[in-house]
Amino acid sequence: MLYVNDLSLNIPETTKPRVVIIGGGFGGVNLAKNLSGKDFQIVMFDRQNYNGFWPMLYQVATAGLEPDAIAEPFRKMFDNGEDFHFRLVKITGVNPVTRTITTLIGELQYDYLVIATGTKSNFFGNESIKKFAFPLKRIPDALNLRSQLFQAFEQASLIRDEPLRQSMLNVVIAGAGPTGVELAGALAEMREHVLPGDYRGLDFEKMNIYLVEGNNRVLPLMSPESGSWSQQFLEKKGIIVKLGTRVEDYDGELARLSTGEEIPTQTLIWSAGVTGALIDGVPAESIENGRILVDQFNQVQGLPNIFAIGDIALMKSKKYPKGLPGVAQPAIQQGKHLAGNLARLLRRKPLKPFNYFNKGTLAVIGRNGAVGDLPGKLHLKGFFAWITWLFVHIYYLVGFRNKLVVFSNWIYRFFTYQRSNRLIIRPFVRQEDKAGQEFIRRYQED
Ligand SMILES: Cc1cc2nc3c(=O)[nH]c(=O)nc-3n(C[C@H](O)[C@H](O)[C@H](O)COP(=O)(O)OP(=O)(O)OC[C@H]3O[C@@H](n4cnc5c(N)ncnc54)[C@H](O)[C@@H]3O)c2cc1C
Fold first, then answer.
1. Dihedral, 159, 161, 166, 167 alpha carbons, nearest 10
2. What range(s) does the External alternative NADH-ubiquinone oxidoreductase-like C-terminal domain occupy (predicted)?
3. Is 65 a pocket residue for ligand 1 (Cβ < 6 Å)?
4. Positive or negative, the Cα torsion across 304, 306, 308, 309?
């Protein structure tokens, strides 16, 4: 049995400069992979023991993939890493004066600190939505959502009360960015090909999938061409798209929209916004819009030897006055680039500014349907974009086993339409509210 007093970060003493990386996402991992253990001691902290491939998370939530297929444990990724140390610990604070990071277990000094903590869901201060909605940011979220969807169908098949059954069958997705659109497409596919066979007593003509977006088009960060093509594709699949509309409140039973409309639903999926996963101790003047302001070398403004990369970093430039987009490529490229700059720092050479190379954006909407905005104002849509999405994502997925599992899953699903991972493994506890009515209680992780 371990007692808290027995715990220690157990990082060996070193004569080399110590680089501490908080977060092993796209940014942190690409930094660590490109740093040399001969030059630095590399210490990576993460609150989970794996690197997740979030672009495929919606497939876990909709029973298409097993969670292990989209993640790779850090200890496996870096099993040959020279002077590399991973610790499964959440970082609670940073002290730039003493050059230490704080955890519940203890403190550690750094020579260079890299904050690569990404983002967390933003509920815009609405506690009720935070309590009852289903976000999709991490693997536990995807398993929660998958369990909720199938539990709602199971319950619907037990219920005689028509309005209550309808609320089990209604799914509302808040936010029509890539995650919302991908989820909507996958749910429509499931409604057409999987659910009627599984639940023969239920009429899935009555299952409504709403996609609610505050902007006046779907995929607001992509081109208008991609947005309107995607909307048509989704509407053909029977998705009810509501533009210029926000989900303003949700009490676990009723989603209230900014138009005044109320949709009874047991499942509100929240993909309407994110904000930086900040660490205490970063001064307020270095933070803007929930992200950490960095210069063109990813140095945090006003904090020597502290860097931020990826989604948490706000790097403004002439071309990107509001900062780089919160997608995987800036994080990957900044991670690699910073590794080069840290090596330059060590050799007292001048740092090189970061230049983002936009490789384009892809979003998948369903079988044979995807859109892509490529450099040079090129737009892809339909089957060709879909095939491109599949290969690009297999290419970037970490681990040979994962590539094989995902690829064979896709082939199997393409021919059979099956979504095999339909287990409810995180059943939700039903409780009575004050009015004596039942509602679903869920567990919120921050
Ligand atoms: C569902 C979903 C779908 C997406 N789809 C796409 C897509 O199709 N294409 C695309 O380009 N981008 C997509 N993105 C965005 C992309 O995943 C992010 O831009 C990218 O992950 C950013 O990388 P990062 O390294 O900054 O952060 P992340 O990859 O989020 O990694 C941050 C890491 O920090 C850890 N962490 C956070 N706080 C702490 C702490 N206090 N202590 C210790 N560890 C901590 C987290 O556990 C995590 O491992 C998607 C994101 C999501 C959530």
1. -80
2. 359-415
3. no
4. positive
250 Cα to the center of ligand 1, angstroms: 26
Calculate how far, in angstroms, residue 332's C-alpha sits from the geometric centre of ligand 1. Answer: 11
For the chain, give every residue range classified as CATH 3.50.50.100.
127-272+361-425
Contact 119, 107 (CB under 8 A): no
For residue range 349-374, list pLDDT tens digits in order: 999 999 999 999 999 998 889 999 99
Separation of CA 318 and ligand 1 centre (Å): 25
Confidence of residue 444 (pLDDT cuts 50, 70, 90): very low
CA 344 to ligand 1 center in whole angstroms: 27
At 41-57, the pLDDT tens digits run 999 999 999 999 999 99
Query: What are the DSSP calls for 261-289, one per residue?
Result: -EEE-SEEEE-S-EEE---BTS-GGGEET
CATH 2.40.30.110 fits 4-47+89-121+275-346, yes or no: no
What amino acid positions are annotated as catalytic residues? Answer: 182
Taking the CA of residue 329 as reference, the ligand 1 atom at the shortest distance is: 11
User: Ligand 1: which of 9, 20, 21, 26 to mutate, judged by most atoms within 8 Å of the beta carbon?
Assistant: 26
Tens-place pLDDT, residues 191-200: 999 999 999 9
For residue 206, how many other CB atoms are within 10 A of its CB? 12
So what's the architecture of 127-272+361-425 in CATH? 3-Layer(bba) Sandwich (3.50)
- Among 20, 45, 46, 270, residue to substitute to test ligand 1 (most atoms within 8 Å of Cβ): 46
Q: How many CB atoms lie within 10 A of CB 88?
A: 12
